[in-house]
From TrEMBL:
Residues 2-81 form the PglD N-terminal domain. InterPro entries: AcTrfase_PglD-like (IPR020019), Hexapep (IPR001451), Hexapep_transf_CS (IPR018357), PglD_N (IPR041561), Trans_hexapeptide_repeat (IPR050179), Trimer_LpxA-like_sf (IPR011004). NCBIfam families: NeuD_NnaD. It comes from Siminovitchia sediminis. Keywords: Repeat, Transferase. This is Acetyltransferase. The keyword Ribosomal protein does not apply. Pfam families: Hexapep (PF00132), PglD_N (PF17836).
């Protein structure tokens, strides 16, 4: 599978190694607006994001992945490109465990040493980051980021664009609102409303976001 990565920052380094770890994965391009010229550098094509359509003409069956950790930026690029959902790859690291009954949306990435248990649903363009756990019957929407070592216990619901900080724990049945930010190390024992930041043990709302988010 030929893959073009969009985004050339820190998160993209991990995605690049993930692509290399997949037997059928072949990374052919990295698009980022920091590249002003469309050119071949060593074994990789680099160029601005606007060249994505041109790449599709060059490589039949090419898949994309948005390799950017910031949820609103991933959404902005997906909205801008207007590609059909199946143009995006679903990437799973070979050391991850994904239940056969779990559903994963296009554009989502499942990093090393994660566990995704039965009857979970994960939306599009979501990141399940290193060593995190998504327990049975959980529902994770699109553009979510589950940071390294976070634990979602059974039947948890995560709204669109929410970011669960590193090492956070969410107890069974709790709901996290759209575009909420859960601080690193938080323990969430009550549902959290949309568009706010919640921190601590137990997690409490610390900030309510303005329209443009954090
Ligand atoms: C591979 C990767 O890197 S993936 C990315 C993983 N990223 C993360 O896990 C990031 C998690 N981010 C955090 O925890 C951040 O501290 C946030 C988002 C919760 C808050 O950030 P900001 O909005 O900038 O808030 P700020 O730093 O101003 O802190 C606001 C208050 O919350 C407190 N606070 C911030 N983070 C936490 C936290 N994780 N736990 C407890 N309290 C916290 C601060 O002490 C401060 O308290 P005060 O008002 O009493 O002084």
């Amino acid at each position: 599978m030929k893959i073009a990565m969009i985004g050339g920052g820190g998160h993209s380094k991990v995605i690049r190694e993930l692509i290399h770890s997949i037997k059928e994965g072949e990374m052919i391009a990295c698009l980022d607006d920091k590249y002003h010229v469309f050119q071949k550098r060593k074994d990789l094509i680099c160029g601005p994001i606007e060249k994505a359509r041109y790449l599709i003409q060059m490589y039949e069956g090419l898949k994309f992945v948005i390799a950017i950790g910031h949820n609103k930026t991933r959404k902005r690029i997906v909205d801008q490109l207007q590609f059909p959902a199946h143009y995006y790859a679903i990437l799973k690291h070979p050391t991850s465990w994904v239940s056969p009954s779990a559903e994963i949306g296009y554009g989502s990435v499942i990093m090393a040493h994660t566990v995704i248990n039965p009857d979970t649903k994960i939306g599009e363009h979501t990141i399940i980051n290193t060593k995190s756990v998504v327990e049975h019957d959980s529902r994770i929407s699109q553009y979510v980021h589950i940071s390294p070592n976070a634990t979602l216990t059974g039947g948890v619901k995560i709204g669109e664009g929410a970011h669960i900080g590193a090492g956070a724990t969410i107890i069974p049945g709790v709901k996290i609102g759209k575009w909420a930010m859960i601080g690193a190390g938080a323990t969430v024992i009550h549902s959290i409303p949309p568009d706010c930041t919640a921190v601590g043990v137990p997690a409490k709302v610390k900030k309510v976001h303005m329209k443009e988010g954090v």
